[in-house]
Each structure stands twice: as C-alpha cells, then as structure tokens.
Fold DJ-1/PfpI family protein.
Amino acid sequence: MAAKILIVTGDAAESLEVLYPYQRLREEGYDVHIAAPARKKLQFVVHDFEPGFDTYTEKPGYTWPADLAFSEVDPGQYAALVIPGGRAPEYLRNDPELRKILKSFFDADKPVAQICHGPLLTAAIGCLTGRRVTAYPALELDMQAAGATFQDSEAVVDGTLVSSRAWPDHSRWMREFLTVLRAKAPAT
C-alpha cells in the first residue's frame, strides 16, 4: 500500500504550487489527497510577473476538487504534508482545524514541504522558531518575526522541513523534498 501525503489548500491557492507537487508525488508512487476547509471544487489562481509591475499579478487558474474537508483529516494516516502558497494561506491560517493538523505533523517530525506564502501557516502555529526557511521574498520580515532565519534560496532544508520561494523553484524544491521523503517515508 502506498504511503499517503496530504496537501492542505483552499481557494486562491497558486495553481502550479498545488498541481505540480500533486502530480510529481503521485508519479513517485505516493497516494496524495487534497484537503480544504470543505469538500468542494476549489478555484486556484495563477500568479505571474508582468513587466512594469512592482509585484506579481493574479488571474483565475484551474479548478480542482478537494478530496476531504479539514475536519475529516486524520493526520496519523499521512506520512507527509505539502503546504502550497498563493493567497490561500492568508485566510487558512485562521482555521482552527487546519492549525491542529499542521501541529500534529510537526509534533511527529513528519516531512513537511512549504512554498511561497505557505510558511504563513507554519508561522501561525509557532513552528518556525529557530528554523531556517525560505518563502516568497516579500515574506522575509514575516519569517523573521516568526523566529526563523530567512534564506533567499531555491530550497532550504531544515530537518524534515523543506521550503521554497515560489513555483519557478519547483524542481529543486521537489528534489529536496523527495530526498527527505525517501529517507523518512518511502512511497511503499
């Protein structure tokens, strides 16, 4: 039986940051489930960089069904966790069910991959203190306020926590995460 990996996300998550790890981890042989505040069709977004803009732009992206609601998640059934970015983490960090899920992964020292604005969730549960992380560069001060050492790098590995800046860094992020997964939670 394949090891299970949980992706936690919601509306306005970055399309590539949900779907790339979803497909890549399935390709590797993992059973991947997407959890959201409710079982529903999620509306993802596309963040891109346009000439002349000081920050990224946002356009509607893919839709994708959530396999289960946060209230239905049993963290003990999952070997690892993926936290995509986009705008979703800004409101998801307020969800008490999700905070319990996240905390259980850190308490059990299970592999966690976070990208872009995803570290806002781990910051909200106090699990970045003393850790090295990266995130979308605009979050450097947020990461420092959460007690982390910010590194502007494609991927940063701190124990079982693997973080990345944004979707252009996917290849390095997933390579590093798969190295941790193969050691701690092989696919079969």
The mean pLDDT is 97. The longest strand covers residues 57-65.
